[in-house]
Amino acid sequence: MSTLFAFLHHLMAFTLVAAIAVEFVLIRQEITRANALRLLVTDAVLGVSATILLIVGLLRVFYFEKGAAYYWSSHAFLTKLAVFVLVAILSAVPTLEFLS
Ligand code: HEM
Predict the structure, then answer these.
(1) H or E element, residue 91
(2) Which of 3, 5, 9, when mutated, tests ligand 1's pocket best, judged by the most ligand atoms within 8 Å of its CB?
(3) What's the structural domain count of the chain?
(4) Can you give the residue range of the structural domain that contains 18?
């Protein structure tokens, strides 16, 4: 089970990075209706992968790795989680822009 969740964790992390790369390419092109639609779909993929990554990550914290007590006292983990949440909040700005 631990291996499966580690695999899902990597899969979602790479999907998220790929979606960001595609968005960078798309926003440099002319914003046509087709491109705007691609941007919305890519942004949805990004949102879904980030959500699954968070859920899978929390499941690993609580059930499949070293246990919650270990991670809540790990500065490296807390920093990673804080950066993840901060970037997720900041990414609402481009998402709202794309939706408009
Ligand atoms: C973009 C965001 C993230 C990336 C790129 C990322 C990437 C990674 C990588 C490369 C590893 C090491 C390989 C492994 O053990 O599978 C790892 C481990 C881990 N991640 Fe993440 N992660 C992200 C977000 C999160 C979040 C949001 C959580 C929890 C809420 C989380 C929880 C964990 C846990 C519990 C481990 C196992 C650490 C250990 O070996 O003790 N990750 N992550």
Answers:
(1) none
(2) 9
(3) 1
(4) 2-99
The tokens for 15 are 């999907």
Rounded CA separation 31/41 (Å): 14
**Residues 10-34 as b or e (16 or more Cβ within 10 Å = b):** eebeebbeebeebbeebeeeeeeee
DSSP for residue 72: H
Q: Is the CB of 53 under 6 A from ligand 1?
A: yes
Work out the angle at residue 72's Cα, subtended by the Cα atoms of residues 68 and 76, and round it to the nearest 5 degrees.
120
Structure tokens at 1: 């089970």
pTM: 0.92
For ligand 1, say whether the CB of 48 is within 6 Å of any of its atoms. Answer: no
Q: 98: pLDDT confidence band, cut at 50, 70 and 90? A: confident
